Structure formats: structure tokens, C-alpha cells
């Protein structure tokens, strides 16, 4: 979204409450959806659940083409359409919902830094594995391991990254890790890397249980 | 007895030991970790062909790219992160990702893509340090490389306009600078009293932006308002690089 459009959307967003019929669009599950897109969609779903904002998930084969930016997932809320986690977080904030308001400036900086780390390393890994670039698999796996180690250290024994309350960082990490753990790939090495970190596994299970199963959304498939 | 370590890198100017971010990151890390580097500044006699510096050369190894060079130095027991906790080590990785994704594109743009800056400052500076005829080719190549790097992280289908990308990358960079300033606060370094890898990276990325005199300086102006970041750069320059630096 251009900067001007972003400001405009924020203005309009502020005036209307969250509607009952908000919808999230992603590609069809199964063969069509890419690893990275699946992670992105899960992250947004987790984020909205954490904010207590109901959304209906709709799978469409042409979701990418429906999206204003060409990126999935996107949400259709009232008469506005917003795509990708970053802009969606801003949009939701304009409506008065935020997960990170309670953080101080230093914590906010940390949160953004860790989100970049996840984008940098896990997203890249997912992209590489999708396109099966054999030559770089070793390096990619090492990066994933380093990233998971960092996330595991940062999480420690806390339930969420900033202790008791989840933030968009938790949503993003969940989206990626859950996708990596549950998607069938020809090569198991990526999910094995994540499985080495028990607190990260517990973290995923906790979010799945609390924000998806308990809300009657059923187990994520 | 370790074999001598030689670092080939771009030279200095405007009070800096190097005007090139990646070279500066390595030079700062070496100072912080006590690694005895022999710095070989690229000048008119340099015969390297690809502009890949900084490059670390030892008896048996040639290592390029700052992250790999720092890893190599750590393995040789030159470790500036010795006192960091595991969490601080994790934070380091995260902040470096932030710098590379949010700050670096705008720094590259300021040096290599913004037309006035590139033609009046960057290109002449680099061209004067590269032997002919490479001086005719290499700066242009570096400029294209910078543009590609920016578009790689920012240009997105279905369409991108350089203007749109430019506005976004400067917005992101300013936000990143604010975040760094908040994180640093009144501390001397990012993790207490001794400098570590993260300090080397922040210094490497910020110092050229802070010191090099460009015609188009919107990001520099923003940085100069963040006095703790400026103090951070000046402190490192004064403490670790106090030599007779001629402006090159």
C-alpha cells in the first residue's frame, strides 16, 4: 500500500467497529498453497484470534489475484481490503485493538527485531525448500537452526515472547513454525530442526490449543 | 602463534577509517575483539577485479562477507561476545536482521542510487581509488548491485515504482534509527560497558551515514537528531580509531 493510501485507510478504519462478517482469503489448501503463504495466513489468523476479532477463513484458487497487492492472505473487513501481516496489524490498531501497546519502547524495538529475524531466516528457508534448491540446503538448514536457537533462547520458559500476553511476534512465529512442523515435505530436515527445541514445540501447541481448538475452530489442518 | 591476518578493504575519509559499511563492521569488530588485523586499503594499485571487499586473508584461507569473517575471527578465539548471555546473543541476531532489512536499503540508496549523491560524491570517491580502466566499470557495477539489493527486499509484484519503494525504505530506515536510539538509551554500548558484534554492525552501518557529506541528506538529518546514536559513533571513533586520519 502506498503511504498516502495507508494513512487514508487508517482514518476510515478508525470510524467503524469490527464487523461480524470479516473474511480472510487465502489459496486453496493442499497442493496449491505455498509453504510461505500458508505460514503468512496462519500468522494473520493467530493474530486476529489473539485480538479476539472473529474472522471467517475462505480458500479461493484465485486469492492472489483478488488481493489488491497480489499478496496473500488478505482480509475483507467492511468495505476495506488489507493484505499481509504488517498492514493488517496497523489496520487493526486503527480500530483500537493492539497486542503490543503494553510494551515499552525497548520491548517494541526487540519485538520488531525478532520479527525481522523470523522473516529473514524462516521465510527464506521456506522459499528455498519450496523450490528445492539443492545446492543451498545445507546453509539454509543452518540458518533455520540458528534462528530457532535464538527464538528458543528468547522465549525461555515464558508462555509468550513478552511473558503473559501474546503479541504479533507470537502470531508470526507460530505461523511459521506450525507450518514447518505440519507440512509434508519430501525432506524432513527442516521440521527436525524445529523439533530440537522443546519450548518452541510447547509454544506452538499452546497457541493452537488456546486460540484455535478452544475457540471451536477445530484443529488446524 | 596465529598467522598474520590481512584485511583488504575500502579506505577512509571524512574522519572515518573506511567509508564502506561492510569494511567498517569488520574493522570495528577486530578492534573490539583484539584481533590483530593488518589493514590493506584498496588504492590505485589494487588489482582485485570484483569489488568483493572486505576480504580477510590468512596463510590458508580467504574469507569474504562480514558475517563469515566475524565467524572466522571468533573461531580463532577473537570473540567480542564472550560476556554476552544466550539471550543477548539471540538479540544480536535479531537486531542484525533488523539493520539489514530496514536500514541497509536506505543506506545503499543514499550512497549508490540517489542521483546527486552518487554522481557528486560516491562515484568520484570510489573511481579515484580504483585503477584505470576498472574505475570506469566498477562504480557502475556497485551501483547496480545496490539497486538490485534494494529491489530484492522491496520491489514486489505485480508492479513496483522506484518512487514508492524509495518512500517506503526511507520511512523504514527512520523508524529503525528510532528503534536503535530507544534501545541504546543512555548506555555506552548495546550490551553494557563493552562493545560486541552488534555494536560493530550498528557502527558500520551508521558511521558513513553520519559523517559523509552528501548533497541529499534526509536520512542523515534524521540521524543527527538522535544524539545518543551520534555520541555512540563518535565514542567508537575516538576510542578505537584515534589515529592520524587524513581525509582521503
Automatic annotation (TrEMBL), chain A:
It comes from the Eukaryota. Residues 145-207 form the Metaxin glutathione S-transferase domain. One of its GO terms (cellular component) is SAM complex. It holds the Pfam family GST_N_4. SUPFAM superfamilies: GST C-terminal domain-like (SSF47616). GO terms for biological process: mitochondrion organization. InterPro entries: Glutathione-S-Trfase_C_sf (IPR036282), Glutathione_S-Trfase (IPR040079), Metaxin_GST (IPR033468), Mito_Protein_Transport_Metaxin (IPR050931), Thioredoxin-like_fold (IPR012336). Signal peptide: none annotated. Residues 41-135 form the Thioredoxin-like fold domain. Transmembrane segments: none annotated. This is Metaxin-2 isoform X4.
From TrEMBL, chain B:
This is Metaxin. SUPFAM superfamilies: GST C-terminal domain-like. Residues 23-142 form the Mitochondrial outer membrane transport complex Sam37/metaxin N-terminal domain. The keyword Amino-acid biosynthesis does not apply. Belongs to the metaxin family. The gene is MTX3. Keywords: Membrane, Mitochondrion, Mitochondrion outer membrane, Protein transport, Transport. Gene3D superfamilies: 1.20.1050.10. The keyword Protein transport applies. One of its GO terms (cellular component) is SAM complex. Residues 173-236 form the Metaxin glutathione S-transferase domain. One of its GO terms (biological process) is protein transport. It holds the Pfam family GST_C_6. It is found in: Mitochondrion outer membrane. Its main location: mitochondrion. It comes from the Eukaryota.
